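Researcher: I'm comparing several assemblies side by side, and this is the next one on my list. It has 438 residues spread over four chains. Same procedure as the others: predict the full complex and return the structure.
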Amino acid sequence: MSIPIPTIKRFPSYLRILNQAKDAGKKYISATNLAEELGLNPIQVRKDISSTGIEGKPKIGFDIEELIHYITHVLGWDNTTDALIVGAGNLGSAIARYDGFASYGLKIVAIFDKSTEKIGTSVGSFTVKSMESLNRFIMENRISIAVITVPAIQAQAVCDLLVKCGIRGIWNFAPKDLKVPESVVVQRTDLATSFAVLSVKLSKKLAESDDLDSDEDMI
Amino acid sequence: MSIPIPTIKRFPSYLRILNQAKDAGKKYISATNLAEELGLNPIQVRKDISSTGIEGKPKIGFDIEELIHYITHVLGWDNTTDALIVGAGNLGSAIARYDGFASYGLKIVAIFDKSTEKIGTSVGSFTVKSMESLNRFIMENRISIAVITVPAIQAQAVCDLLVKCGIRGIWNFAPKDLKVPESVVVQRTDLATSFAVLSVKLSKKLAESDDLDSDEDMI
DNA sequence: ATCAAATCGATAAAATTTTACCCGTATCTT
DNA sequence: AAGATACGGGTAAAATTTTATCGATTTGAT
C-alpha cells in the first residue's frame, strides 16, 4: 500500500521524462524507454509504476497521460500548497526567485528575515517581511509548509518558532538536523550530503582509472 | 571494504556534530550521543563508524579528533579540490557566493555563463567568464569538478562540453538526468526529489492526524 | 494465419541496509 | 573490592530494495 521512499524519489524524474514525451506528441511509453532515458533498470521502473496501480499494455507500454496524472496525484502535486521562506540570504533569495516550483504544486507566497536591513527590500517579486509578522501571516493565510534558509546556528530557533505557529512541513536547507515534534515533518536538502557522494564516487573512479593506467603501462 | 552509500550520506552530519562537540571542548563522544543528536539508531551509528575502522572505548565512546580525521579522509575532504560553476543564474550565483564549501574541501574558482549580458559582471568575488574561455581555463587550472546550474534544456550540451574538456566529476543542479561516459561521475542535487519526499510524508502525516481527530470525535 | 519481437505482470531470488542480541570491558559508585 | 551501568564489537536476524526469471499478451511481419 505505502510506496517505498526510493520509488518516491524517482517519481519526479519520471514526471520530467513523461512530460517531455507528452510534449513530443507521444501517447504511450514503455518502461524500457523510461529506464533508458534515466539510466535505470527497466524492471525497477515497472515495479515503481506498479505501485501506482497503473497497468500497461504489452508491446505498447503505459499511457503517458495516465502516468502523469497518477504520479502527480501520489506526490500530492495536483493541488497547489502555499509556502513561505524564512531567511533572505543568498539561498533563500535564489529559491524565492526560482519559478519552477509551480510544477511541484508549491507556491512561495512570502519571504521573511530577521535582519532590519533586509526587511522591506525586495527579492524577486516579494518584499521581505519581518519575523514579528510571521505568526500572524501563517495564521491568516493558513500556511502549512515553510522553507528554512537561515544559517545553521539559527535554524533550530526558527524551526521552533515555525512549529509553534502551526507549520506542519519544513523543508530545511540549513546544514543542521532539526528536532521537531512527532506531528511535524522535516525534509533536509543538504549540499554537503550530495557532495559527499560525489566526492567518494569520484575518488573511487579516479583510483580505478589510475589502476587502468598502470595496467596499461605493464603491457 | 567499500562503504555503503547511505553511510556516506550520513557522514557529513556526523562531521557537523563532531566539530560542534570538539568546539565545546569534548574529547570523546559515544555512538548513543551522536545518534540522539541526529535522530538515528545508535547501532547504526556504531556500524557506520566501524566502516572507517576506528575503535571506541566501552563506557567512553570514540575519540572525536580521530573520528573527524578519518571521516574527513574517507570523504576526501582533507585535500581541497578546485571547481568551477557553469550557469550564473539565481542558483549558480547563490552557490558562487556561498562560503561554506571550504569545509567540504571544495573551492569554487570561477563561474561561466553563455549570456553576453552576464559575462564580465561580478558575482560575489568572481567575474563571470565566457563559455569560449572554458576549455582553456579547465586545461590550465587542471579542474576536475564542475557544478552545472544552467536551465535543464541546456544541461546536456554543457555537460558534453565539460566532459570533452576533461572534467571528471559533475555536480548537477539542473533538473535533468545527464548522460555521461563511464569515466565521468555525475551527482544530481534535485530540489524536486527532495520536495517529493516532503510532500508524501506530509500528506501521510496530515492523513494520520485527521484519523486521530476523527477517532477523538468518536469518544 | 503463423511466428517473431517487444513488453508487461507476478513471483521469487539476490543484494543491500537496518536492527536486534549477546557478550566483554572500562568506569563509577558504594 | 564488588557490583551496577554504559558502551563498544561481532554475529545474526529482519526489513527493505533491487534484480532475475518466466509465462502471457499484443503487435507487426512473413
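Model: For your comparison table: Chain A touches chain B through 62 residues (CB under 8 Å).
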